Amino acid sequence: MEKKDIIKVDMIRMEGDVAPFIQVDYMDKNANEHTGLVLLDSASTVNILSPEMADNIGMLCKLEEKDSITSIADGEIEVEQVRFSFVFGGKQFSETFCITNNDLPIQVQGMEVLGLIGNQFLQKYRLVMDFSDYTLYTSEITPNNLSISDCSFFFPMEIGLKHYGLPVLAVRQKGENFVTMLDTGSTSNMISKKMLSDNDFRHSIFEEEDVITNVTGSVNVGQARVWFNILSVNTDDVCELSRHDRFSVLPRYVFAPGEDICDEDGDPVPPIGVLLGAPFIARERWTLDFGANIVYKRKTTRRFYQLEESA
User: Fold this and answer.
1) Which of 137, 167, 199 marks a domain boundary?
2) DSSP type of residue 262
3) Sheet holding 294-298: strands in order across?
4) Same domain flag for 80 and 173
5) Is 6 exposed, middle or buried (0-12, 13-18, 19+ CB in 10 A)?
6) In the prediction, which pLDDT does 302 show?
7) CA atoms of 231 and 275, how far apart (whole Å)
8) Which of the four, 142, 153, 182, 230, has the lowest number of CB atoms within 10 Å?
9) Domain membership flag for residue 24
10) What residue numbers bound the domain in which 67 lies?
């Protein structure tokens, strides 16, 4: 796709939740046209197609290469790769997808869920997930049309994409910064139990527990309300935005990079212990721009008008 091509489509919310989907058109193996949904998952580096849908989609080419997928369930699986063609926003795409089971709903708003699209696709086509109006569109951000002073929240995602292959920001606890993943495919926030015990995050534990299931298995989690500060870049330095929300408490880190992954100084990059999910991102009305590699929220300008009295 050339940069001059513009995409703008609505993101679709799952009933009772805010996980973002987009509507795509495709052809089955009998050349019949269909419409389905794919989840926009910023924390996945690959695209995933369900086995049930793969069996029924035409023009599906198996590739010789295989890929490995890891997740918070602390597992790794090897998956087949396929080439899948689809259309949205008036544009034709043909992309590599991994075939694997997932924990996505079968249908959303009466349409079949095909799988998910990861952040490599979003970066490749310079796409923006805008939670201020729930739209997906082509990035047009430049230093001339957006500055830090225009934003009530601003943070560069590029460091996380470079070192982890994931969009991240930072939260601060007692003067120390912690890497935090932005996951539009997750319907809950998550935090490592080790983060709570070792770093004295203010929190309150709930009695109930839950199970999180994804492509590599399931993991038992606790529940807690956690208080934290989000770092936001401003024109002078950085500021801290105080927040609190409900979190699933994981028995391990959210993401642990390999020992050979290092920063510019040659030091190993730290594990990710905190994850902010789609409901939190939507409430904050953030914009995740994978063309400019930034996450931000524009300032809201309120204008007040004085009504003239009738003569």
Assistant:
1) 137
2) B
3) 8-10, 135-138, 127-130, 287-289, 294-298, 151-156
4) no
5) exposed
6) 43
7) 14
8) 142
9) yes
10) 8-137
**At 182, which CATH number?**
2.40.70.10
CB 278 within 8 A of CB 184: yes
Residues 288 and 167: their CA atoms lie apart, in Å, by: 9
CA 258 vs. chain centroid, Å, equals 21
**Burial degree of 232 (CB within 10 A; 0-12, 13-18, 19+):** buried
Q: Confirm if 85 and 92 have CB atoms less than 8 A apart.
A: yes
Helix ranges (H only) for 80-192 are: 119-124, 158-163
Residue 75 in any domain: the answer is yes
Tokens linked to 144: 């001339």
Domain membership of residue 243 (yes or no) is: yes
User: For residue 254, what are its two tokens?
Assistant: 């959210």
Asked if 94 and 33 sit in the same domain, the reply is yes
Q: What is the rounded radius of gyration, in angstroms, for the C-alpha atoms of the chain?
A: 21
pLDDT along the chain (311 residues), means of 10: 70 87 93 94 92 79 70 68 92 92 84 94 96 95 85 92 92 91 94 86 87 70 94 90 95 81 78 95 96 92 40 34
